[in-house]
Specification:
- The chain has a six-stranded antiparallel sheet, with helices on one face. A five-stranded antiparallel sheet has the order 7-6-9-4-11, covered by helices on one side.
- It is α+β, with helices and mostly antiparallel strands.
- The chain is 16% helix and 32% strand.
- Helix 2 runs antiparallel to helix 3.
């Protein structure tokens, strides 16, 4: 066995057919956004359902001065950001960095992160969740739940694997005693 053969490891096969199958899904760029709200649009490019839970990929467009999401983490999935256009402020758990076209941030499960648009210009980015999770309800209802606030918002966030610093006590447990805002 050569040196290269020993280094290359692939996951176990999940498709066991002999000739492949017709199963690709094409989404034209002209497809309208799946979700529109004041200052943002979201395109559901690949959902938990459409990928069989492998990943979720979303194109998000934020208007100028959009608050994005405050500091939080996920227990069950990683989240990645790829900036397509504009400037996106990203918190990497340690510091804020300015992401511009072509910049990428990977956040493993448990990694603190946040994002916002602090400029007057719109921005466009891809958000990738792995493994896939049913994020669509989160995107569609988060503004409504934020209006309700309190325990209802906290429960909604936790149901969607989103643990915000402001909802955790000083020891990092659900409770809300330790407030942290960005």
């Amino acid at each position: 066995m050569s040196h290269l053969e020993r280094l290359v490891e692939y996951p176990e096969p999940r498709y066991h057919g002999e000739r492949g199958e017709k199963s690709a899904v094409f989404r034209p760029a002209s497809t309208p956004p799946d979700l529109s709200s004041p200052g943002s649009t979201t395109h559901y490019l690949a959902t938990n359902e459409s990928t069989g839970g492998e990943f979720g990929l979303y194109k998000v467009e934020l208007g100028g001065r959009s608050p994005g999401a405050r500091t939080h983490f996920h227990r069950a999935m990683s989240e990645s950001f790829y900036v397509l256009s504009g400037q996106l402020e990203l918190f990497d758990g340690d510091r804020w960095v300015s992401g511009r076209e072509g910049d990428f941030l990977y956040v493993p499960a448990g990694g603190l992160h946040a994002f916002k648009n602090v400029t007057d210009e719109p921005l466009s980015m891809l958000m990738l969740f792995s493994p896939g999770a049913p994020r669509e309800e989160y995107f569609e209802r988060v503004a409504e739940m934020a209006q309700r606030g309190g325990a209802e918002l906290k429960d909604f966030r936790e149901r969607h694997d989103s643990y915000f610093s402001e909802d955790l006590d000083a020891k990092g447990n659900p409770g809300g005693a330790g407030r942290h805002r960005d």
